[in-house]
Design brief:
This protein has 73 residues and is mainly beta. It has one domain. It has no helices and six strands. Helices cover 0% and strands 51% of the residues. The chain is globular. The chain has strands at residues 11-14, 20-29, 32-39, 48-55, 58-61, 64-66.
Length: 73
């Protein structure tokens, strides 16, 4: 499912493990956009910083897939 914009509060699943991650921050650094993800249900694990990729007008996170039914809130 293509996502137009990655936003705080979205849930993404890691492709290789199937673990759920919550987007806690999205920010721009130089010429790139990054998302900070924290594993759902685990406050002790270090957050992941993933570069946001643009493809055909939609945003994606390498190694993750969007896990919610709708992006409308």
């Amino acid at each position: 499912m293509p996502i137009k914009k990655i936003q705080i509060g979205q849930v993404w699943k890691k492709d290789d493990t199937g673990d759920s991650y919550l987007v806690t921050k999205v920010y721009n650094e130089a010429l790139a956009t990054f998302a900070v993800l924290r594993k759902a249900g685990s406050e002790t694990d270090a957050p992941l910083r993933i570069r946001v990729s643009l493809a055909g007008g939609s945003q994606t996170l390498a190694g993750f897939r969007f896990s919610q039914e709708s992006e409308e809130f």
